[in-house]
Amino acid sequence: MNGIPEISVDGVSKQFRSGALALQSVSLQVEKGEFVSLLGPSGCGKSTLLRLVSGLTEATGGTVAVNGMPPANARELMSFIFQDATLLPWRTVAQNVGLGLELEHVARSTREDKVAKMLEVVGLTAVADRYPRQLSGGMKMRVSIARALVSRPRILLLDEPFAALDEMSRDRMNEELLRLYLEQQWTVLFVTHSVAEAVFLSTRIVILAPHPGRIEQVVPVDLPWPRTAETRTTKAYEEQVAQVSRLLRGVRALS
Amino acid sequence: MKRHLWFLLSNLIVLGCLLGLWQMVVWLLHVPAYMLPGPMVVGAAVEHRFPSLLQSLLLTSTAAALGLAGSVVIGVAIALVFAQWGWLRRLLFPYTILLQTVPIVAIAPLILMWAGSGVTSVALVAFIICLPPIIANTTQGLISVEENLVHLFLMHHATAAQVLFKLRLPHALPNLFVGMRISAGISVIGAITGELFAGSSRVGQGGLGYSILYASGQLETDYLFALVLAATVLGFVFFFAGMFLEWYFLHHWHESNRSDVPE
User: Fold this and answer.
1) Do A103 and B157 touch (CB under 8 A)?
2) Closest residue of A to B255, CA-based?
3) A119-138 confidence digits (pLDDT tens)
4) In a domain, A113, yes or no
5) For labelling alongside B127, which of A44, B117, B207, B211 has CA 20 to 30 A away?
6) What is the domain count for chain A?
């Protein structure tokens, strides 16, 4: 620990060109190794907050720092996973996973090596030469995650990555994500509107309220690690889900 | 396989019926051959004039292919420029539509005046009518890339060239082929129109268009029909060549060409 938070959001506001205020003086510190979920009704600016941290958009007020740097300078540390798999349909699975390395001019042999290892980690080796259209939704998402992880990021930013999946695959992807999280120890910022998902995954849940987007409540989650499918059947988990749901309902009543 | 055979057979039957009807009309109404020759007479003309017919066909297809190839190269280049600089696109895009609405018959004489008669002018006419569909479709494909994909590239410090050639251009390939399919069909029309004005009248150098003028001037209606037939076949060949290229380049990955079902 060097005292600098991995992600630091300080009094940040974001006003769109249309004049709408997406976020108003939001402050949030994320320490190294934390898994923080951003939860809230639509219009609360949770995706906007994620994009500010990624450096894809800039704040209109306040400062965002990633490992003490402006986000745009810290892109090597971060990987972004979108709601859709956003695969390039003309590339095979392996070529999609290797895209980032290719754009950063990593030598072909090194690239192929890293891609092969990553495909093995996420269990996609068998479909390495398939095209995206031949894959199911869950598989596509897995490719998207592999693509994000292959550059060995320290920070993972996920924007409702499993929203389009059915509940079964979503649960399975959650478990897999946690397995990789314990293995590779990233810092995670995870946008979702599923309470169950947020509780299962997070060390901390940030509940946002809309109009204008602001942080309403921060809830620590102290379920024991490692969390597996059985975790969902425990009483502690159920209670935590109920508590967060109650808080979220309060926020919805406000809006 | 059996279904394909049946499809082919039923098409041939329809064709046979139409030809038979045509022949009957000519026979029963005693239409003179210079007005409407029957299919048998036309067939005889094809056989009789085959070498010159083939030569005209080759000349026209060469000019059409040159015009089409040129329009693909130049059209894609223009579309890339349009995709890279939005203000230029907004400024100049209307003129590409103007290019499409200008009557080609009216500017063909101008081209003849500037470039002289021969294959250059003919290819130029084909080029002009092939260009707008290529530009319009390719530009559309280049600029309709999903924003998240662009963000993904930017997260990896992609340069403008990388975004253009690794993302936008492959994304626009299906659109480019739609444009090419349209242009392939009209390239033949363009070449023949060009030849009506700018075809060389030297022996053995007149394409289909010039030969059509010649045949109608001489009231060789049977030959005229043979030429029309050749032009139609040529248009078909170009269209299917375009379809084949599209299939060849896209069938691995593109949804419109999917041949197998997932999982």
Assistant:
1) yes
2) A133
3) 988 888 999 999 999 898 88
4) no
5) B211
6) 1
Residue A190 inside a domain? The answer is yes
The domain of A202 spans: 7-86+154-254
Percent of chain A with pLDDT over 90: 25
Domain B39-257 falls under CATH 1.10.220.10: no
pTM of the model: 0.82
- The interface pTM score, or ipTM, of the predicted complex is 0.83
Closest by CA to B184, choosing from B74, B68, B24, B84, is: B68
Q: Is A132 on the interface with B (CB under 8 A)?
A: yes
CATH code of the domain covering residue A37:
3.40.50.300
Q: CB A84 to CB B156 under 8 A?
A: no
Domain ranges within chain B, ordered by starting residue: 1-30, 39-257
Which class for B55: exposed (0-12), middle (13-18), buried (19 or more C-beta within 10 A)? middle
Residues of chain B with pLDDT below 50 are 259-263
Task: Please tell me the predicted confidence (pLDDT) of residue B202.
Answer: 62
| Most distant CA pair in chain A, distance | 56
To the nearest 5 percent, what fractions of chain B are helix, strand and coil? 80, 0, 20
Amino acid code (one letter) for A106: V
Joined tokens for residue B179: 């444009």
